[in-house]
Amino acid sequence: MSSTVFGMDRTRTTDDVPVPPWRKSRRQPQPKRQLSQDLIVEAGLGILDAEGFDALSMRRVAQELDTGPASLYAHVANKEELLELIYDRVLGEIRLPERDPARWKEQLRAYCLEVHRVLGSHSDVARAALASIPTGPNSLRTGEFVYGLLIEAGMDPREASLVLDRLSLYLIGDAYEGSLHRARMRAAGMSDPQEYFERFSGQIATYYRALPASTFPHLRRHIDELVADDGENRFMYGLELLLDGLEQRMPGA
Amino acid sequence: MSSTVFGMDRTRTTDDVPVPPWRKSRRQPQPKRQLSQDLIVEAGLGILDAEGFDALSMRRVAQELDTGPASLYAHVANKEELLELIYDRVLGEIRLPERDPARWKEQLRAYCLEVHRVLGSHSDVARAALASIPTGPNSLRTGEFVYGLLIEAGMDPREASLVLDRLSLYLIGDAYEGSLHRARMRAAGMSDPQEYFERFSGQIATYYRALPASTFPHLRRHIDELVADDGENRFMYGLELLLDGLEQRMPGA
DNA sequence: TTTAGAGGCGAACACCGTTCGTGTCAAGTA
DNA sequence: TACTTGACACGAACGGTGTTCGCCTCTAAA
């Protein structure tokens, strides 16, 4: 049974030789009594960053901590909860300025860019986030910032709630899409995003060029424009679109 | 081995008795020579609609077609391709009107509502869609509609490309989120979305009420407004936000 | 010193996507 | 008519997955 073999791997650390069977191996001095929720979250985030979402399994996390998968369940209810904890841990990296309602648009833009940066740097964490309702401490912290900014800028509370919701959806949705692309990149063995984008859009362009111009005249005619902008430009465009829409709805408009 | 038992299930149909072992079972008259890609896609969509995304496995699809999982791979490269095929199949249900650039905003709104309706009625298909680049025939059909509408209304091709991209992200992202909520609803054994929404927002409200008002003053003060609107209202608000942003950018503005 | 309980964890359960190799059959060719 | 070829069906297996059970050990309170 290969699972037995895997289980036995536990008795060795990363780079040493198996313990000789006659050494009773009376358990190492006083080691393992660690294994907290924080450690598990940190290990999970490490795997997510280094190997991507698909590599993040409970077994893999346990392996990283030199233990078996069952041990994790004393500190974490299940994988979903672990993902939520990792997500909130990442949100903790978001830096918030002092609120200044007079400059709400500028601050909101900066906030979105900051979220984009953080979610982007921990590539795959967004895949855990779309469903999770703002419930972790850092989710609340960022929520209070955005909501407060809108309210203090004079927006109606009901509308501000909708804006908070739609803005989050945009940020997470975009990050999620980005993470799927990163997974494809990884699967293709590439590592340079620029190279990936060019090869990828090249393929799309080639495919589009083979389309019948009679049924798809507009797509056919503007292939170059269709694949011109990368993820960063697309994100920025959507952001400005939202911000401008918001500006129309603010009291001073 | 339970897998053997499962495999043998194939030799019976849904509601009859096992074949006696002495009957050589010379294979049924001329049955099975079916099993096309269309059948597989249709079966998959049926499972998706009836039991949700998490129930959709290659084994489950095979079972539905009275065969083994290996048989599917002659018609479908892998699960990912199957999901893309199902997605495009669903997009086929989207009805498009004659394009009328003079009424672009109205038509774009109607289009978005139609997509929202179709993706919502096949709840979980959006979970397959976020990554898939517009490559299926129906993806192209809808893309040509939106892109043509924007171009004919006078928008710059480069910008129209960005709009097409962001609009798709919004529609799919919202549907994806909705599907995750539907999964939660299913997991909680509920079936009425209204009931689910009320119980869910009630929980959130209760949780928010326990928050310290000193650190989260704005969230704390406006709990009722935060949970007031359901998914439909949120979708509509975001849509109008986008459309208004677009209007500002159109030539006639 | 004894006891209660929390945590570690090997083994197993019931799944999953995918591949391999064999078997069957229909159509084309000699 | 007989033989060959190739497409498809599919049982079995491989190597994973999340999670649970039950036992064991060890710490801390009594």
Automatic annotation (TrEMBL), chains A, B:
Gene Ontology molecular function terms on file: DNA-binding transcription factor activity; transcription cis-regulatory region binding
Which stretches of sequence are listed as region Disordered?
A: 1-34
Would I find DNA-binding among this entry's keywords?
yes
Record-linked Gene3D superfamilies? Tetracycline Repressor, domain 2
Q: Name one GO biological process term.
A: negative regulation of DNA-templated transcription
Q: Which residues form a coiled coil?
A: none
What Pfam families would the database entry show? TetR_C_1, TetR_N
Q: Which UniProt keywords apply?
A: DNA-binding, Transcription, Transcription regulation
DNA-binding region, residue range(s):
57-76
> Which residue range or ranges hold the HTH tetR-type domain?
34-94
Matching entries from PANTHER family are given as: HTH-TYPE TRANSCRIPTIONAL REGULATOR RUTR, TRANSCRIPTIONAL REGULATORY PROTEIN
Instruction: Report what the protein is called.
Output: Transcriptional regulator, TetR family
